[in-house]
Amino acid sequence: MITKLPKWILWGGAVLAFSAGSLNTAALMGFTNLSVSHVTGNVSLFSAAIAHFDGQSLLYIGASLISFLIGAILSGFIIGQTSLKLGRRYGRALYLEAGLLLVSYFLYQQHDYLGQLAAAMACGLQNAMVATYSGAVIRTTHLTGLTSDMGAAIGNWLAGRSISKLTLGFQAIIWYCFCGGGVVGAFLYAKVGYGALFVPIGIVLSAAFIYNLASDRLPEVNADLQ
After folding, report:
1. pTM of whole model > 0.85?
2. Which sign, positive or negative, has the C-alpha torsion 155, 158, 161, 166?
3. Least CB-packed of 19, 60, 104, 223 within 10 Å?
């Protein structure tokens, strides 16, 4: 349960969720019509491809799923922890994510399916960067678990039980930022196509730069209070 929320965590979660929302919408509207920010829907499409013996879709969707997994593996390799603790490793992970997104832009422009794989890998990397903060699970590239957690908290509140309003507020901010990013991504894709990817590229690159500068001045604490 979150009892204290530093501003850098609030802003970081918000902007990364916005970035993922805009990226995912652009990917869905593009020629692949596949999500890059979450796995569940793509697994359902993968299952349907198996049922219909659609070898090409099996290959494409399966590769996207594996790419997301590889991104998460890279996150674990670079960061090496599940609870949020300050350190420059997060900056390195964010720079790598920005690089993957830039590669995905150029590949998407060529209608190369490898662009989907680079974008999915970037999302897997981002989503696995932070697992918990003060016992609360933090995910910035999809909303399923977060929405469930919010619903359970509201249900407990309606039943008269105590809840962490700070946790609920933080989750709501991530929810709305992801949604808002999706709106921006859809609008920009309709106007400039895959040029919409420069929004998440710029956000992630800026976040990496600012984090590396700020992390030297923030107290080195383990934010997981479990």
Report:
1. yes
2. positive
3. 223
